[in-house]
Q: What sequence folds into this?
């Protein structure tokens, strides 16, 4: 099965699923171009952990700085597969593992997910996207509706207990005032914020 793994910079990316409960206004899934070494990140089906591990066996992890779970979908939609694949990676390498997530894993899986990531990933980057619940709805358009923003913040707060490196990100499609408000929110939560340029 193709499109599961792709290379970008010195990192090996895992495109675990195409499922996502959001429809972010800036989502690159609507673009025709792929990412990094892949020209297409649409999957034939959501891969099993066995299929993902088989894909890993074609690469040498010593060639990369990090393994990053990030593709055309939300990795926490495939929580069990994520954990199984990370356990496999841990069994063969001490490479850094990062999860890029929209932070809605608790709503997706109907349970607290941050504790389940302890020892599974080394770093998590959570899409903050907006400084308040109303603007978050406008930017990310989550299927969960109101409450998604607070759930994302709760997940981020809990991640600090279980994951060594926790960061927020925003894409600079929002106003400078909103980016500043996001920075203030991130500062209050004591979580670093990375401002990403659109398409970067
Ligand atoms: S959370 Fe990520 S994959 Fe989902 S719509 Fe937003 S940008 Fe796209």
A:
């Amino acid at each position: 099965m193709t499109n599961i793994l792709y290379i970008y910079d010195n990192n090996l990316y895992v495109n675990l699923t195409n499922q996502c409960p959001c429809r972010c206004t800036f989502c690159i899934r609507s673009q025709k171009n792929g990412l990094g070494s892949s020209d297409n990140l649409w999957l034939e089906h959501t891969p099993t952990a066995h299929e993902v591990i088989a894909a890993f066996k074609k690469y040498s992890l010593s060639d990369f700085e990090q393994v990053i779970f990030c593709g055309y979908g939300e990795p926490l939609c495939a929580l069990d597969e994520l954990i199984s694949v990370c356990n496999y990676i841990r069994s063969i390498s001490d490479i850094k593992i990062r999860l890029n997530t929209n932070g809605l894993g608790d709503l997706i899986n109907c349970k607290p997910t941050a504790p389940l990531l302890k020892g599974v990933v080394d770093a998590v980057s959570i899409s903050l996207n907006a400084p308040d619940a109303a603007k978050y709805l406008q930017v990310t358009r989550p299927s969960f509706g109101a409450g998604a923003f607070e759930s994302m913040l709760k997940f981020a707060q809990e991640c600090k207990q279980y994951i060594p490196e926790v960061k927020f990100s925003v894409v600079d499609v929002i106003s400078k005032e909103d980016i500043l408000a996001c920075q203030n929110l991130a500062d209050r939560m004591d979580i670093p914020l990375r401002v990403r340029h659109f398409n970067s």
